[in-house]
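Lab notebook, bench 4. Continuing the backlog of folding jobs that were queued last week. Each job is logged with the same field layout so the records can be merged later without manual cleanup. Today's entry covers Aminotransferase, a 389-residue chain. Filled in by technician R.K.

JOB TYPE: sequence-to-structure
TARGET: Aminotransferase
LENGTH: 389
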Amino acid sequence: MPAPSTRIATLTGDGDDGWSLFYRARAMIAAGEEVLELTIGEHDVRTAPDILDEMHRAARAGHTGYAAVPGMAALRRAVAARLSASHGRAYGPENVLITPGGQAALFAAHHAACDEGDRALLIDPYYATYPGTIRAVGAVPVPVAARSEDGFQPDLTALAAAAPGARSLLINSPNNPTGAVYSEASLAGIAAIAEAHDLWVISDEVYDSQVWAGRHIPTASVPGMAARTLTVGSLSKSHAMTGSRLGWLAGPAEVIAHLVTLATHTTYGVPGYIQEAGLYALGLGPEAEAAVAAPFLRRRAILLDRIAGHPRLRAVPPDGAMYVMLDIRATGLSGAAFAAGLLDAERVAVMPGESFGRAAAGHLRVALTLPDDRFAEAVDRLVRYADGL
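JOB STATUS: finished
OUTPUT FIELD FOLLOWS
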């Protein structure tokens, strides 16, 4: 057969997406083994029944045909209102594109920001799809390391050094995998670098409803940043709607108009009945989002309490998101070796830090995604494995 394109064959760079342990854990579960899985950011509760009822009602009412490619006007207005309230500036529906999840929004944003061969900066550690998303648009990912010892706040000196000649910077706060919530000083520094080097900033804010300490500062709310920021949002994490694939990209109206054209040639929009359910979900208000987030704060405390003072396990306390990063370098093992041994010995699956970039080597990402009692058991098994090394 003809060879596939170089671009599609090299999306993961070295050919490894770093998630082999996740696939092995899933294979064990499929074979009937009991595994306490703390890998991906999937809620342990499903989408709320009333949201599903609205999805069913909309589908039965006939909203199963082609929907408007930019998104339903009412949903775009609702997202614009949500952003206007949190960003402190006015958004209209013309500033919003509804996308099939946050991942599609990331893809669209990099198409808007980058041409073939452009350098696209991202903070390391990063969510596993980020480098491949950048390669998928023909750009070159340039990771800039953040340090565990600094709470994984961006290294502004390193960013400034990497910025000359770049076209974009991808940031994520609250952060997956680290749980870092970027400080006012970090965002002010990012804004200064973006202005000095004329960068687009692509701000992934899908965890904005999960903040445990401090406050989430939307990037576009920083003075001077609205005209150069593309904000990614989603209902996946805020409303436990991961499988519904409903997100958005917000930014200057002229750019969104071009991205509507891109959507016409790629996704062709999001099913109307799912958009109707999303509109209903947003109408439930912040109380519904707080209820979805509350279990992760409890489990954060469970983990931090159980490993406090441990000689070989150090938590990087997360200020947000549904994960905790554990520094396990004192064990002498890599994150990959520790995670593999933990799965074999204790049937607990976590993600090796190396899955998220070089800066997370020697760490584990623990997802806070099991019911409290099962989560506590998983943490106890993890501690037992570390004690036995």
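OBSERVATION: The mean pLDDT is 96.
SIGNED: R.K.
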